[in-house]
Amino acid sequence: MTTPLLPAAQLAEEEDLVAELEQLGLTYLSRRETYRASGVRSPERLLADLVRQSSARVREAVIALLLAHPEYASAIPAALAQLPQAEQTTLRLYYMAAVLLQQEYAERLRPRLAAGWRPLPDLFSDELSLPRRGSPREQLAQLGYTHRQLSGVAINWTGTYENVACHLVRRWEMEYRWNR
User: Fold this and answer.
1) Chain segment 113-161, per-residue pLDDT in tens
2) Using one digit for the tens of pLDDT, what is the confidence trace for 36-65?
3) What is the pTM of this model?
4) Which terminus of the chain has a lower count of CB atoms within 10 Å, N or C?
5) C-alpha–C-alpha distance, residues 57 and 29, integer Å
6) Which phi and psi angles does 42 have, rounded to 5°?
7) Is the Cβ–Cβ distance between 167 and 28 less than 8 Å?
8) Interacting residues of 20 by C-beta distance below 8 A, sequence separation 6+
C-alpha cells in the first residue's frame, strides 16, 4: 500500500509534530527524517496542530499525548478556541477516548507516569450525550458509535482509539525492557 503524496509543507509539519512528540516521550510514531526538535510548542497549540493534521496516525496521537501527559487536559479549552467546529468535535471525541482509555489502561500507564499520574477529568460526556455508567470498554463502544454518527465516517472508531493506546503502552513496555 502506498501513502498519498503530501505537499512539502504538510510533510514538514507532520515531521515537526512527530519530532516534538518524541521530545515528550511518545516514540511509537515512525518518521521519515532524522530531524530532532529543539523544543515543543505550547500544549494548546500542540493539541490544535495535531487535530489539524491530514494524517490520521498523527491526528490520533492526541489520544496518546493526553495519556502520556494528563496535565495537557487543562489546555483543552484554549486548543478548542483555535479550531473550527468540525475539528473541535474531533478534539472532544479524542479527548473522551483518552479519558476512557486511561481508565482501561490504568495499571499499565501508572508505572510509566509515576508522579505525573492524574486522572483526566470528564469534560464532554454531557455535551456528547455519552453515558457515564458501564465499564470503560462499554463507554468506548458508545463513544465510537457517537464518533461514527458525528463524523459520518463508518470506521471502527473504538478499535482506532484502542490501537493508539496499545501502540503507546507496548512501546513504553519495550523501551523499559530494553533499558533494564
Assistant:
1) 867 789 999 999 999 999 999 999 999 999 999 999 999 999 999 999 9
2) 778 899 999 999 999 999 999 999 999 999
3) 0.91
4) N
5) 8
6) -60, 155
7) yes
8) 37, 39, 40, 41, 46
- Lookup: cell for 128: 456528547
What are the extents of the domains in the chain? 9-178
